Amino acid sequence: MLEHLTEFIGRTHLVVLHFPIALLIVAALIELSRALTPRIQRRAAEPFRPGITAITLVAIALLSTAYAVVSGLILGFDEPAKVDLHRIFGIATGVLVLALCVSMLAALRATSRTPALIYLALLGISAVVVGYTGHLGGNLTHGTGFITRPLAHIFNREPAAADPIPIATLNPADFALSQAQLDTYLDTIQPIFDNHCIECHGAEKAENDVRLDAIEYVLDPTLEILVHGDADASEIVYLIELPTGDPDIMPPEDDADPLNPDQIEAIRAWVESLGS
Questions:
Q1: How far apart are CA 59 and CA 97, in angstroms?
Q2: pLDDT in the model for residue 74
Q3: Which of 53, 109, 178, 269 has the CA that lies 20 to 30 A from 232?
Q4: pLDDT tens across 206-216, in order?
């Protein structure tokens, strides 16, 4: 029961993470607008103080950031090293928001400009960092450049996706495979991926930076989706063998046709064969 509850908390990260992003950016815009208001609209001798709206937003942002950090660490506990940068920025965001709240309290009681300037600076930095942290999270779930790719197309600056190695030039020795293992991949495994997987894991869209449109990507050790000779330890096999209805099953039931038992067994057998 505790395990399932913990898993639930981890998954709520995908919902809660939006709160601190929106709250801190809106608070920063509000306070920037107030800070730039001509001083004739405020008492000349009175230093800038945080507004009640910003105080409320930042207080809620602190609570939601704390929850987002904890749930994110739970969700990504067993994730590969590529998640580390997102983790670091997530924790940094939590520290920044806590420091922001301290500076906000100091600015409320201040008799000089310095605490207010520190508060405004931390608010702006927090808004930028939380936005960038969200961007890193989007790259993890949808692939690097997911947000900016449409703009790159507009300005014709989209880097060309790496072309798969032509089949005619594939050398099994380059992948530590036998010719039979390579032939099985080309004849059986790649067609399964082509029909069920590359819509989300191809050159144009590579969710979690996973591409399944060519063998060099499938066997890429940095992806950590496949363990040679051990299907039970391979993430790709684990995901396709999940029971119907499981939200993590691959391919997602709402996006693509499910794999049939023969296809699942073919992938499992091929992964197992890589150990020989």
A1: 9
A2: 83
A3: 178
A4: 777 778 888 88
B/e letters for 121-130, b = 16+ CB within 10 Å, e = fewer, are ebbbbbbebb
Which domain, by its residues, includes 257? 167-273
Residue 245: pLDDT above 80?
no
Tokens of 21: 């992003």
Question: Six-digit token pair at 10?
Answer: 């981890």
Please tell me whether residues 121 and 216 are part of one structural domain: no
Q: Which of 116, 131, 153 is the last residue of a domain?
A: 153
Which amino acid type is present at position 82?
A: K
Token digits of residue 108: 């409320």
Q: Identify how many contiguous H helices and E strands the chain contains and give both numbers.
A: 12, 0
Q: What is the pLDDT of residue 163?
A: 61
Residue of 223, 222, 201, 218 whose CA lies nearest to 274:
218
CA distance 222 to 210: 10
Same domain, 144 and 269: no
Phi and psi for 199 in degrees, rounded to 5? -60, -35
Indicate if 8 and 141 belong to the same structural domain: yes
Dig out the tokens for 99 from the structure: 């420091």
In a domain, 160, yes or no: no
**Does 12 share its domain with 109?**
yes
Domain presence at residue 162: no
Q: Has residue 156 got a pLDDT over 90? A: no
**According to DSSP H, which parts of 155-196 are helical?**
179-184, 190-196
Domain count, the chain: 2
Neighbours of 88 (CB within 10 A): 12
Q: Longest C-alpha distance within the chain, in Å?
A: 83
In a domain, 226, yes or no: yes
Domain boundary among 153, 176, 192: 153
